[in-house]
Specification:
Chain lengths: 172, 264
């Protein structure tokens, strides 16, 4: 584990001496043209520049899953993805799941099953579960647990998270 | 992270030209290892050359008696590939247990073998299946590719373009995973190809290696019992908070026997 003293501050948005890069991403249906220092991760861009702070920074090193988002429909770690590598990508974050004021079935199921305590891991858990359902492979509780192994919950809400995902999948 | 320039390469030739001209430039594939390394300021490349846009590096095809996997093919695509699942199910199974789904959606086979992490899964399959690593310059036999801890035969301006895996008669991979990262504490890949047996061991030592005594024993009799009286010396094996070298030595035998049983 990396101690907080070693943590790397977010890169400045632009103006790095090595030159900035222009790109555009679609986030939750809105197109954002951006000019960025190539060091900016998608996570920092979402949080610091687009004000989409639903996606959380836990470890910033790919180990906790708090930053899980959907890029072109697949779950990925925003902290290990440079924004410049995703020019033209279609991104969905936790803010993009509810439609017309109605929560996504997974969001509703997380509430009904009390699938969180502090809630810090929850946006990542829910985005990861959206990816899990789209992949269509995990069916049993054990398979769901294995397929969610990249998403750590320090509060230990795991049994309720699995129950919420099962409900959203329409499993008994 | 230190400052770097970013460039998306249009072709292998294009990427080769840049890294050939600038020794400080680095290739980026899935970034699953390189980006954490940059964040820890353990590397200071002048430029990152992104291989993500090069179509010729992606995809899986059958070529005669081999499955050829492009360097930029993601773990998830190897795990789900009908070609790999039918010809070398053990390889699809290995890919389906690398890290977690988010890592498998970005990490690539080229990045994994070029990095040569002592606990990575793919090197065991490359060695046990006697695969050939294809680069922009030459073909490298598995036995010559993995050199030492995080070290390979790749030159500084060499790019892995694909890996060619001969189709075995029987093969299986068993790993004892780290429960958090799923990296191999010990992983053993056994394969019988054209009557030849090879056993690749990852996670246990500083670099993947072949367990030749087990290969000889399994060559005579393809049965887990053939390994019963063999043991691996703990000297030189990895020892860390996850497992002592003695425990790893023991696990090599256990994983090998289980893999032979699984291969059938
Ligand atoms: C949380 C987590 C868990 C993981 N668990 C596992 C696990 O259980 N098992 C396992 O095996 N791995 C595991 N990994 C590693 C992961 O699967 C990737 O394979 C690995 O990080 C490297 O692949 P990459 O495509 O991301 O390469 P990158 O990080 O982009 O590159 C790695 C290195 O390879 C070089 N490189 C990349 N492509 C090429 C090429 N075509 N030619 C020459 N050089 C190249 C780069 O310059 C760099 O030095 C894990 C990673 C994370 C973050
Ligand atoms: S913040 Fe990205 S995995 Fe922890
Ligand atoms: S709810 Fe607190 S970390 Fe999961």
């Amino acid at each position: 584990m990396i101690s907080s003293d070693d943590s790397d501050p977010p890169a400045p948005a632009s103006g790095g001496s090595a030159g900035s890069v222009s790109l555009a991403v679609m986030v939750n249906g809105t197109r954002y043209p951006l000019t960025l220092d190539p060091r900016c991760t998608l996570l920092d861009v979402l949080r610091e520049q687009l004000d989409l702070t639903g996606t959380k920074k836990g470890c910033d090193h790919g180990q906790c899953g708090a930053c899980t988002i959907l890029v072109d429909g697949r779950r990925v770690l925003a902290c290990l993805t440079l924004a410049v590598m995703k020019d033209g990508a279609n991104i969905t974050t936790i803010e993009g799941l509810a439609k017309d004021g109605v929560l996504h079935p997974l969001q509703q199921a997380f509430i009904e099953h009390d699938a969180f305590q502090c809630g810090y891991c929850t946006p990542g858990q829910i985005c990861s579960a959206v990816g899990l359902i789209a992949e269509g492979r995990a069916q049993t509780a054990d398979e769901i647990r294995e397929s969610m192994s990249g998403n750590i919950c320090r509060c230990g809400a795991y049994p309720n998270i699995v129950a919420a995902i099962q409900q959203a999948m329409g499993l008994p | 992270m230190y400052d770097f320039k970013y460039q998306k390469a249009a072709s292998v030739a294009d990427a080769a030209k840049v890294i050939g001209a600038d020794g400080e430039a680095k290739l980026v594939a899935g970034g699953m290892t390189l980006i954490p390394t940059l964040k820890q300021r353990l590397a200071k490349p002048s430029a990152l050359i992104d291989l993500g846009g090069i179509a010729e590096l992606k995809g899986i095809r059958r070529e005669g008696n081999a499955i050829v996997i492009g360097a930029m093919t993601k773990h998830v695509d190897v795990a789900n590939s009908p070609e790999v699942k039918s010809a070398i199910p053990a390889l699809a199974e290995l890919a389906s247990h690398i890290g977690d789904p988010a890592v498998r959606n970005r990490g690539t086979i080229g990045g994994s073998i070029a990095n040569n992490d002592p606990a990575a899964d793919y090197p065991s399959a490359v060695v046990a299946l006697n695969a050939t690593v294809i680069t922009n310059k030459r073909k490298i036999a598995a036995d010559d590719f993995f050199k030492a801890l995080f070290e390979t035969a790749l030159g500084s301006d060499e790019i892995v373009t694909a890996v060619s895996f001969p189709i075995p008669e029987k093969a299986a991979y068993m790993k004892f995973p780290n429960p958090a990262s799923r990296y191999a504490i010990v992983g053993t890949f056994v394969a019988k190809t054209g009557g030849n047996v090879r056993v690749g061991v990852t996670g246990a030592g500083p670099c993947v290696f072949r367990w030749k005594e087990a290969e000889a024993a399994l060559g005579k009799s393809w049965n887990g019992d053939a390994l019963k009286n063999l043991s691996v010396k703990a000297d030189g094996l990895n020892s860390d908070i996850h497992a002592s070298s003695e425990y790893r030595a023991h696990l090599i035998g256990v994983m090998a026997r289980r893999a032979v049983a699984k291969a059938g």
